Predict the 3D structure of the following.
Amino acid sequence: MAELQSLIPGDEEPDGDAMLLTQLANGLVSRIPTLCTLKTFYDGKEQVPVKSIPKSTNQSGYAVYQRFVSICQLDLAKAIADAVIHRQRPTGFRLIADKTMRSTKADDMWSQCRMELKSRQMFHDLAVYGNAYALVNKNKLPSHITVLSPWNTYVSSDEDSAVNYWYKASEGCEYLALYRLIRNDDGSVKDVYCRIAYNETDSRSLLEEGDEEEIYGIANDDSKIHPTLSPTFQWDGGAESSYDFAEKCECLPIVRMHAPGGKGQFEPHIPTLGSIDQQRFQRFCIQELQAFKQRAVSMSNMPQFYKESDPQVRDGLAQAGDRIDYKDLFQQGPDALWLVPGDAKFWESGVTDINPLITAVASDIKHLAASSGTPLDILSPDVSGSAEGAQLKREGLVFKVEDMNARANDGFTRLMRMALEADGNSAADERFETVWKPINPPSQLEQAQAANYSKGILPVKTNMRRSYGMTEIEIAEAMQDLMDTQFAQAMASENAMIEGKTSQQSAGVLPDETDSLAFTDTTSENDVVQADEPPTVDGE
């Protein structure tokens, strides 16, 4: 193994900041080609290898094959990833404690940091690239939480150190920020600090997600040069230890969410996706060859010169002794007729059956759906079966989303604890749990039926939360509306009674003795005493 060269010349202390920075930066750089491939497949811009184009094609034919290369992609990677992304929908946080089950502070911080939008970007990074990152800082404006790109961030496997890269064109410098967590011998956190290194350069060394042309080039062409970092960095001052909130929460200010194995949803299936594109390319080529069939004419004795008896000579189109130009003789056109000798035989290329290729692609898509845990009806519209069978096929997707939600829950709770601590609230020892909407949203009829069956078994608020998937804010609004409705009904009933009594008095009708019981208290003191006495049994 080659010796590791420090990015900061002169600082090569083992286990020092410079060597740790170098290791993390190298991990980031080595991941970039894979990120290029993942983004290219997700965007549907992957291409079959150029060597698939037949070598014997002429220039005009080569352009046709190049077009097939650019249009044969079947963008299944996006469908696989989006099936998970669109089903991850957090609604708030539950505080696990003895006295309360709801953390309004965490919900307020979630809204204050605009995490409803930022979480969607993290879910996208998690599903496509296999990793999502966010940074917590003390600055309240614009927010305590900043989403970081997997193209610029890398966290160690033990999550005790991380590196973040960025470039400032106005300063002509690129920067690497090292975040490190120092532990005591017993494993407790001793210190959390950040140290920044910079390098003067005219352009950024690493790619960002918006550099699509370069990204597609690296993914589709093995000869492209991969990005690297120059070992000419230097430290920009000393360490910055202003992360007391992270020290209290015993974690780095950079939080990493990772998918199983750190791989995106379709990353293990890239060979299958590539083979489907290859088969589509072959089918396009076969169809193109069938569109222009090859024809041939064979004769036992092909004359080379016109004779006096030839129709062309009699019609004045040629002279006897002229060489016959068979290219002009067999011209194509709607009114073209070919004059050939009686012993001429015609040959035409046959039709190639492309149904096996279509069947093979459909079979590959089915295997891809099964191996990736994606319902087949998401990848292929031509699906038939029972509703129960469709529900069974979605079980794999449900389990996969539940697993991703559990992994995201760990990251979100750490982010909320640190953000609350940075905002001045004591939350380092609090235990949070993310509340999610149902993975498969039920219909209104299904929600109403579930709520009806749970009536009398579950409390009203719990029923709203579980049967309708309502947030705490929605539940509070519903309860307030319920109280307003009950108050309005009580007022209406009281007004109706008063109006009824007034109408009777205005009509001159005196209430009889029975009616007076409804408006006057006729209970005597003896009645009260008798009511307080215990009931008697007949015969005693």
In short: Confidence is low (pLDDT under 50) at residues 513-540.
